[in-house]
Structures are given as structure tokens and as C-alpha cells.
## 1
Amino acid sequence: MSIERHAIAASGTRLVRSMDSEPVVSGTRPGWCIGNHRSIAKEVAAKAADMQQHLTTLAREDERVLHVELDRIHGPQRAG
């Protein structure tokens, strides 16, 4: 899973970060996608909670990084 975070601070500073993680879900199915459309849709829907949980975990981890980046950029402004 690849995620790109684009954050804009109140000062207008843009902070961009790319994160790659292991796949949350994967699968294969014999035959043509069109013939398995309903089965594939059900399987993906069943994994939606797992994907949401994974995204939430990555967002929490990134929040700490984002705070450090913001403090590094805006730290001198707060002190002055």
C-alpha cells in the first residue's frame, strides 16, 4: 500500500511525505474478472475494515512525524 500525505500548515508551509507498507489484502481468483465481479466485490468489502484499520495505524504513526516536522520548521518562530 502506498500513501502520500499532503499537509499545509497555517503558515502555508507544505509538508509532503510518501509511505509504503506491506499489502493489507491480496488475492487471486481463476478466470476473468467480469465473471467473478460479484465475488470479488464481496471479498473486497469483507476486507474494508482491515484496510481502514491499517490506514488509521499509518495515520497515527505519521502524526508523530508530522508534529516533529512542524516543530522543526516553526520552532524558531514560536521562540521569537
## 2
Amino acid sequence: MRETSTNIMDTKMIDCSSPSSQQEVISSNSCLGSSILLSRDSADTDSVNNTRSTLQHMRFLESTTYKRPLPCNLPEPFNGLWRQQIVEWMYTLVKHCNLRLASAAAASYYLDVAVYKGLIQSPNDYQLVALTSLYLALKVYDSPCLRVIKLGSFVKLGNGELSEDDILRMEWDLINVLGWRLNPPTANCFLQQYLTLLPSRRLFHGEDPTISNNNTNSNNNNNMVRDRIKNIALHAIEQATTRDNFLSIPVSIIAYSAILFAIETLDLQQYYSSSLSSPHLTCWQVETFLLRMAHVANLDSTSNPTVLRCVMLLGRTLKDNPIPASCIINKRKGCLAEQQPSKSKAIGRPYQHLQSVVATSDNGYGNGVTVVERYESDKNSPKHVEVMRY
């Protein structure tokens, strides 16, 4: 058997020309054997190469053009609890309206830059810029041609203190402060790219479809596991975005740490589950994913101290904000199930076709703002929006 040395893996690579050699590779080094077997799938190799170039460009933009301000550079009181509550409000509004979560992440970036560059001087400015940031982010990251967000709906959220002219004027000022750079790579964007590096079980069997007797069940299992990982990771990213102590960590590492946390969560669920057939990742899939992340995304979960620190921070943060059960059992693809925020409660009469949701926050001076949103029974679009002070 022929052997060649390689500098990348600092080990010996065995020629896999025969099936017996392939089994020997897998038994001796599962990570290396996985990479060799995966190279047989040309489509998968092309996808990995495309992901590598995309991630390189995104990480370059993340560290240069769209570098986020540090939490120590955000003046009081526009950090800490104020920032957490306003970003949570953004996520609440986006999720209840079935909009893209990346819009809230981008809006938080706009808001942080506006605070850092002195565009905000008062609490009223903070509220106005927050509304404008979300309005602008929905234009950039959502589908305005398909789901039109009326400006009047945002004006109603201002409790009559804001007008459409105020938002339009602030939108122009915000764009100038951002330097017309409106497409920051969010943690959601990195998550989407990282999920393409997650291998499916069918790749372990190469290109021979006869090895797996039930390809349909295997594909369903792969999709279910991928959706669960995505949902848990999205929840972790949301919690990290709302807290300013994560601003010092690049969003690329936050997204990777969220996936690692999701994988660990599924492993624990599988360990304590009475059913061994529940969807989960195999050891081969986890090892292959870690190998791809190290060589494609240049992120090593074992030697990168920032990744390890971020995983620990996510664990502490989510300890106080447990993962909703809907993140694990939800079957809707590509989104979190609608959930009530931790400080929300339902009020009003039991309408037959309408549902009331209340989000309450404290503006720091003891004057809370209550937002009441009533939706149709299909929950597709807001039927009525009211804003009240108490």
C-alpha cells in the first residue's frame, strides 16, 4: 500500500483506491477518512469551495468595513439594559410579523454605529433611531417587494410622538452615518454558510445509492437534524445579539459557537432520551463538520480561545434564558416557532378571530411603553397596532 506524507494534517495519507483501504482509513482516522471519502462527491467539493470563498470575503468585511463598536465605546445610558430591551423589542416585532431574523441583527448594528458616532443624544433620539434602523434593515434584508412594511405602522409605534417625516429624515442621517454601507454580514448570514458544511449521512456511503436501503428516511432525518440545529443556533444568536458583552466577539465566531452549542444540546437530548432512534448527529458527522470548519472557515474549536470563550458565554446566557421547546420539536423549516417574550403576557377579551400580544419594556425612567398587536387567526399580517403608555 502506497503512503504519501502531507504537511497540512501532519500525518500519513493512505491511498484509498480499494474498498478495503477505505475501511482501514475510517477505522484509523475517522476525520481524515471522512475528508477523503467526501472528495469523491464532486458536487459536494464544489459547494465547499464556494463556501470557502464566500466566508473569506465575509470575514474580511466583518473585520474591516463592518467592524462593530466595542461595548466600552457605547456611552451611557445607550448600552446595557437599554440596548438589550430595544433589541429584544426588534426581535419580538420581527418574529411576530414572520419577517427575517437577519433584519433585527442588522438593525442592531445600525443602532450601535449610530450611538458610537454620536447621532443619538437623547432617549427620544434613541427610540427614533431604533425604529428607523429596523425600517431600513427590513428594506435591505427582507423582501420589500413581497411584504411591504408600511411606514405608517412604524409611526404608530412611536405613540404619536413621531411622524413619517421624522423617520424619513432620520433614515437619511442614518445612511450618511453608515457611509452607505448597509449590508453587514450578520451572525445569521454566517450561520447559513456554516450549515452548508454540515455533512449528511448519505455522503458516508459515497455515491452508491444501493448501500442505504431507505434513502427517504435518511433524508428526512438529515433535514430534521439540520432544522433543529438551525433553530437552536438562531435562538442562541438572538440572545447574543441583544447583549452588548458579545460586541467584542466577531459575529462569525458567535455563529460558530451557536452551532457548537446546538450540537451539544442535541447530544445531551439524545443521551437522556429513551429512544435511541431519535434524530441526531453521528460522531462521523460531527468530526467532519469540525474538520471542514477548521480548513474551510479557518475556525478551530479546540485551539481558538475566542471560540471557547464564546461557547462559555452562550452557555451562561442561555442558562437564564432556556431554549424554548419549539426550537427542538418545531417542524416548520427555516424559522423559529412563534414564542412569547419572557416579559410578555396576553390581555384583552378572548376574541374569536384575533389574538392579542403585549410586549412591555421600561425606558429607564419608570415610564413603560406597552405595544399591543392584534393579528388575524392565520397570523400572517398585523390587523391593528396600538401603543399605550402606563
## 3
Amino acid sequence: MNARSGSSTIGESVPS
């Protein structure tokens, strides 16, 4: 689990 962006999945390319 990466709290990089506000997403629930790590499939996100860039944090909006």
C-alpha cells in the first residue's frame, strides 16, 4: 500500500 496519491490502487500513473 503506497500512500502516494489519493487512490486506493497502485495502478495510478501519477498523483493528481
